[in-house]
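INFO batch 0412 | record 1 of 1 | parsing
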Amino acid sequence: MSEFPGLYLRIARRKYPGPSPEVISSATEFVIDGYTRSASTFAVYALQLAQPTPVRLAHHLHAPAQLLEAARNGVPALAVIRAPQGAILSQLIREPDVALRDALVSYARFYERLFPYRDKFVVADFAEVTTDFGAVIRRVNERFGTAFSEFEPSEPNVRRCFELIKLRSTLSPVLLGFESGTVTADELLPEVAVLARRPGPATEAWIPSEEREKSKAALREQWARPDLARLRERAQRVYETFRGTE
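INFO prediction complete | emitting C-alpha cells
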C-alpha cells in the first residue's frame, strides 16, 4: 500500500497527524525520506539546525508514496539511501519481529518503485549525509533552485545533532515540531534544557552504540545464509543503481 500515494497518503494523514512523522501537504517546502535506518533523522536535524527560519518538512514516513508525491508535484526532495546490509541489520535490531527475508524484499521494492522518478530527487548515501550534509544541501539548491542554508559538519554542529537525536525518544511535541518546521530553534532551546534534566538515560535507538554493534555482529551470520543469496544480490543491485551519480 505504501507504494501508492493516492491511497496510502490519505491513510497516513489520519494515522500521523503530526508533529512527526510529517506527511507531504500543500504547506511542504521540502521532503526528506528513504528506507528506514538510512540517516533520515540526522538529515532532518542537520537541515533544520542550519536554517535561519524553519523549513516546512515532510519526513520519516519511510514510504515510497511520500517521495512519489513530491516527484509528481515538483516538490524539492531528498531521497536517502544506505547499503542494504547496514540499513537492514540496523532495522532488525530496532524491529526484532521483522524477518530478514521480508526486510530484503521491502528494501528492494522501496527503491525499485522510485526508479522511474529517479531524476526528480537528489539522492544521498548514508555516508555523505552523516559526514558532509552541507554538500548534499548544495546539490539540492542547485537541482531545485532553493536557497537552504548549508550545514557545516563541524564537531560542535554534529554533536548538537546527536544530542537532539538522543532526546527523540521522549516524543516531546516541541522537539518533534522542530523536525517538521513548526517550532523555531529559539522555541526549542528551553524544551531541550527541560528534557536534559529529566532523570534516566535517553534511549539511543537512532544513533550508533556498542550494544547495537554487538547485535549486528550476531545478525551477520543470518545475513550470509545461502538461501538469501538472490535477495541480497537484488538489494545490492538496487542500491548501486539507485544511488548512481548525480
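INFO post-check: The CA atoms of residues 9 and 65 lie 7 Å apart.
INFO record closed
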